[in-house]
Design goal:
- 35% of the residues lie in helices and 16% in strands.
- A hairpin with a 2-residue loop joins strand 13 and strand 14.
- The radius of gyration is 22 Å and the shape is globular.
- Bound molecules: 4'-deoxy-4'-aminopyridoxal-5'-phosphate.
- 4'-deoxy-4'-aminopyridoxal-5'-phosphate (PMP) binds next to helix 4.
């Protein structure tokens, strides 16, 4: 490697002391990233789960360029614009959640959902402060999002400042799991008990917890959660920042799970990964409690870049692409299935699982389980040397490719992982 770490950059989630110098990427096209040095890389993780349709997709690039030449930004508390209106109408039509609140990223989309839920009760004159979330959840890195996320290495310095949250087990499952039902029942019992305390909202990542380790739950569990939330008269928030917008085979993961949350957070694939944007969808019944002449009822929340026209143009283009070829996301799971079945034969693969475009498994290792397990990092390097970008979460290995990935490229991803597993040292990892 001829480079050193750049003297002026501070990369996210990274200690430069323990990480090799970051490589420079100069171009992307489809599923492929081109580096300044070295051969091209297949981006098997959609660059942090955002690049839904592939890098530099011409339809999205053109939509942004066209919008940039017309209107790049306008104060959204005074004005609206055609791209925002079109996007809001389309999302409302496709999801049944009629109100669309814009922000800047996944964490802010979650913050808005949490604040909206808490203020909804406040506006109704009923103090409900309890929030319920699940073990292993990740909802973002701002304070509110961190508070509802699981306490971890990431949150540790801030733990004393995070508001209390009631935590419920997440009964995640995998292929051939015969013990899921009692675990689901245990979680539902814990939820039932927690809901005896007046609760503002329950927040969850529908179908798949992302950063928590691609941990998948069954739709029937989520339906049972919703039923209990409804019985308790509480609100349900779906954080679909990762799982939404086609990732799980439907526009919303909630739709596939058969649940209808009151609030839904979206980001990542929303703009096809071109621009940062967050959206919080809300049912009309939520919005109605913020109406009236009493100024304390207003949602006093906003961001400079709210409903940025370039972001909205990108999101409309991203939605166009999903709608033009719906089978691309609706049938992606079949493309993974036989490949994952074959890989699952490997002795270092356990708990294989699949949801839409997301295929995952846990490494069989003798080291510590979880995010600090070193085996994933070793595998990542071995796979990178074969031209494929993966980024295991500790001992959890996953593929989350862009929809445009070709059959040959997908084969290359699985083959690189399979070869990497062969080369993975047997001892101490
Ligand atoms: N929620 C979920 C489920 C996520 O996966 C993420 C990001 N990985 C976030 C929230 C936070 O999104 P952002 O990084 O855009 O703030």
């Amino acid at each position: 490697m001829s480079r050193n770490h750049h003297p002026n950059l501070w990369p996210p989630f990274t200690s430069i002391t323990t990480t090799p110098p970051l490589e420079q990427v100069v171009r992307g096209e489809g599923a492929v990233l081109y580096r300044a040095e070295g051969p091209p890389l297949i981006d098997a993780i959609s660059s942090w789960w955002v690049t839904l349709h592939g890098h530099a997709h011409p339809v999205v690039a053109e939509a942004i360029a066209e919008q940039a030449a017309k209107l790049e930004q306008v104060i959204f508390a005074e004005f609206t614009h055609p791209q925002a209106e079109r996007l809001a109408e389309r999302l409302a039509g496709r999801t049944g959640l009629e109100r669309v609140f814009f922000s800047d990223n996944g964490s802010t989309a979650v913050e808005v959902a949490l604040k909206t839920a808490v203020q909804w009760w406040h506006n109704r004159g009923e103090a409900r402060q309890q929030l319920i979330a699940f073990d292993g959840a990740y909802h973002g890195d701002t304070f509110g999002a961190m508070a509802v996320g699981a306490r971890s290495l990431f949150s540790e310095p801030f733990d004393p400042l995070l508001f209390p949250v009631t935590r419920i087990p997440w009964p995640h499952t995998h292929w051939n799991d015969e013990e899921v039902e009692p675990r689901e029942q245990q979680a539902l019992d814990a939820l039932g008990l927690a809901l005896r305390t007046p609760t503002a909202a329950v927040i969850l990542e529908p179908l798949v917890q992302g950063a928590g380790g691609m941990r998948i739950v069954r739709p029937q569990f989520l339906q049972a959660v919703e039923q209990r939330v409804r019985e308790a008269g509480s609100l349900l928030i779906a954080d679909e920042v990762m799982a939404g917008f086609g990732r799980c085979g439907r526009l919303l993961a909630s739709q596939r799970a058969g649940i209808t949350p009151d609030l839904v957070a979206l980001s990542k694939g929303l703009t096809a990964g071109f621009l940062p944007m967050g959206i919080t969808l809300a049912k009309e019944a939520i919005f109605e409690e913020f109406l009236g002449t009493d100024p304390t009822k207003t949602l006093w929340h906003g961001h400079s870049f709210t409903a940025n026209p370039l972001g909205c143009a990108a999101a409309n283009a991203s939605l166009d692409l999903l709608e033009v070829e719906p089978e691309q996301h609706e049938q992606f799971e079949q493309r993974h299935r036989s490949r994952l079945e074959r890989l699952a034969q490997h002795p270092r693969v356990q708990r294989p699982r699949l949801c839409g475009t997301i295929a995952a498994f846990d490494l069989v290792t003798s080291g510590t389980q979880g995010y600090l397990n070193p085996a994933g990092k070793v595998l990542r390097r071995l796979v990178r040397d074969q031209g494929v970008l993966i980024r295991p979460l500790g001992d959890v290995v996953y593929l989350l490719p862009p929809l445009c990935i070709s059959e040959t490229q997908l084969d290359q991803c699985y083959e690189a992982i399979s070869n990497g597993l062969e080369a993975l040292p047997a001892s101490d990892l």
